Amino acid sequence: MDSGSNWRDGITRRIDQLKDTLGEKDYKKYKLDLLRCVAERIAEFSPECGQCRIFQQDISTLTQDVGNTIQTADKVRRKAHARTIDRIVDHLQKQHKLVTEGYYLGMWMGIGLALGLPTGIPLGNISLGLPIGLCIGVAIGTSLDAKAKKEGRVICPGEKAISSLQGTKLMILIGLAVLLLAGLVAFMLLR
Q1: What is the residue range of 77's domain?
Q2: Which domain-ending residue is among 34, 61, 96?
Q3: Is the same domain home to 32 and 15?
Q4: How does the average pLDDT of the chain come out, rounded?
């Protein structure tokens, strides 16, 4: 067993201890599931990446200090905790080409809306073009997210804290269906 896996196992044990001692609210507020995933990814890349080795120390400090941060209810420390995690995630995204779950869905929904507006103009009904563009964006984004997950490029695949995105996707699809129906109704009424 190498030192990277020893470090990762120690962090995982510490986060498990925190999960047993902290309330669910604090566990989620301090993004400890995400921190566990980030620690696993950092351990994976640290043999080749100097910045990842530096982040190992930051993660060790975060897991040691989270109990004190919660007890003192210090907003400055909590924000610093969140910024550190965000900085590590940003590094993983930029340097190692990883993505968060639902990354492409969010990006392509916006692109789909932007393309749907000019698509609706030639159809004579902008309200019809927007849901069409949104549906296309969701389809492309979902397929790219699935591809990233298959390639192992998702920072935290399948974690309970991240799986709430599945519910968000369902709500988005329901919203799209409503928008599409509203667009069709508006199209029929304006004819």
Answers
A1: 3-96
A2: 96
A3: yes
A4: 80
